[in-house]
TrEMBL record:
This is Disease resistance protein At4g27190-like leucine-rich repeats domain-containing protein. It comes from Stylosanthes scabra. Pfam families: LRR_RPS2 (PF23247). InterPro entries: At4g27190-like_LRR, LRR_dom_sf, Plant_NBS-LRR. Transmembrane segments: none annotated.
Length: 471
């Protein structure tokens, strides 16, 4: 008997491990939080419990105020992790200190939190719509429920083939985005209960399908949706003659949500594309941290310049950026890999790219037969002052391989600073005589410099290249 719904017992249990209990059906009694407090639990690990269908009730998830890690492995009947309660509470903070959620080999898992039900509908207030940047909602009355995991930083989802979202019943996933990347037709008319899952500290979702970043306060539900359906959307992109179809043709407009969500964008086997990023869509790619373009037979230009008046005649990539203005907005780009682009003569059109790519960490250029220099000095409108200092603040790795025409990294009178560069590899670049023709290269943290298979223990890259060419 419990008086006033108060806890009668506080357990000092700090760690719970349940392993290979094939007949275990329940961990906690219903409403056990009225009887016992487990607030000192920090990690929970569940492995090989083949009859278990869920781990926690909503009330238990709220009460485990110290839980930091939850691991669930190899439970073949597991359908959900947290079973949500029916109730009028619109804001639910679950597992308030959970930092790590690891879900592995759960063949029947469909969601983390079960569908939220409610018998009543309420209207959105105008303030809520303004706060969320939602420009248009249908006129139906809807219940808004926000589920929060305020400390969650690591979410791993491996071998969970049925997983579709974090908490179901939340969205019309084929959302539309306007030119300012704001959601415009969200949620769907047939969604009676709208659930948002907020994870303010979670930056990345890792899964069997790959990994995907979460930008700003975007909802982890949509991140999981786009992650699960990434291959489907990539295949649809392959049918487009231009990415402008995404904004101009109704049947492709659902891809706009994916484009504005994907931080690691891969454009593969899009054989009809002439331009990868149209000039009037540059702003939609500002969030992209990694861009991969492969096996696009007709591609002539990656970032279309505003002054590009006509199409070229050769069916091979000739330009990544036509001018510096095209690079603006890619300040989050971390990885740049260029492979087998045999008509490409340079990577960057001028030296000012360093200021436009402050987050660039890795630069790889492989098998480009006509590549003469990485940074061109041919742009007369952007010639730096003699002896100017160029800094790539985050660049940690440079790999130049099988570039038969490459003579140098940059031919201008410049001083390069690579304060975080630890690895430089130059291989099968027979015409490369120096890194920077008339300037210096400052690499204080350089650990390994490899030139034609030989390792040099020096920070003076220019001298090392000259040394090996003198042999």
């Amino acid at each position: 008997m419990v008086a006033n719904n108060a806890y009668e017992i506080t357990y000092k249990l700090q760690s719970l491990e349940l392993r290979y209990l094939p007949k275990l059906r329940h961990i906690w009694l219903p409403n056990i939080v009225r009887l016992v407090s487990f607030k000192m639990l920090t990690p929970i690990e569940i492995r090989g419990c083949g009859s278990l269908k869920s781990v926690l009730s909503e009330s238990m998830a709220i009460s485990l105020v110290q839980l930091q890690q939850l691991y669930v492995y190899d439970c073949e009947m597991m359908e959900e992790i947290i079973t949500m309660d029916d109730g009028a509470n619109q804001f639910k903070t679950l597992l308030p200190n959970l930092e790590v959620l690891w879900l592995v080999d759960l063949p029947k898992l469909e969601c983390v939190c079960s569908r939220v039900h409610h018998e009543h509908d309420i209207l959105f207030c105008e303030d809520y719509k303004e706060d969320r940047g939602i420009h248009h909602l249908n006129n139906n009355s809807k219940l808004q429920i926000e589920v929060s995991f305020p400390q969650l930083e690591y979410l791993y989802l491996y071998e969970v083939p049925r997983l579709k979202c974090f908490c179901p019943g939340a969205y019309d996933y084929d959302i539309m985005v306007d030119e300012d990347t704001q959601i415009t037709n969200f949620p769907s008319d047939n969604v009676a209960v709208v659930v948002t899952v907020t994870t303010p500290k979670l930056d990345m979702v890792s899964s069997s399908f790959g990994s995907m970043g979460i930008a700003g306060e975007r909802d982890v539900n949509l991140t999981i949706h786009y992650l699960v359906h990434r291959m489907k959307y990539k295949e649809e992109l392959q049918q487009l003659e231009t990415l402008r179809c995404i904004t101009e043709q109704h049947q492709y407009q659902h891809l706009l949500g994916y484009i504005t969500w994907e931080t690691k964008l891969e454009v593969e086997r899009c054989h009809k594309l002439l331009t990868c990023v149209p000039s009037n869509m540059m702003h939609l790619f500002q969030h992209v941290k990694s861009l991969g373009v492969e096996q696009c037979e007709c591609l002539e230009e990656i970032f279309e310049s505003n002054d590009y008046g006509g199409q070229g005649t050769q069916l091979e990539l000739q330009h990544i950026w036509r001018n510096h203005a095209s690079i603006l907005g890619f300040e989050y780009l971390k990885y740049l890999t260029i492979r087998e682009c045999h008509e490409l003569k340079y990577v960057f059109p001028d030296v000012s790219v360093a200021k436009s790519l402050p987050q660039l960490e890795v630069l790889e250029v492989v098998e480009c037969n006509k590549m003469k220099e990485i940074i061109s000095s041919n742009n007369k409108h952007s010639i730096p002052k003699k002896g100017a200092k160029i800094i790539f603040p985050m660049l940690s790795r440079i790999e130049l391989e099988k570039l038969s025409s490459l003579s140098c990294f940059c031919p201008s009178y410049l001083h390069f600073e690579l304060p975080r560069c630890e690895l430089i590899i130059i291989k099968e670049c027979p015409k490369m005589e120096t890194f920077c023709c008339f300037g210096t290269v400052y690499t204080p943290r350089l650990v390994s410099f490899w030139m034609e298979g030989r390792k040099f223990n020096t920070n003076d890259v220019n001298e090392a290249i000259k040394e090996i060419r003198a042999i």
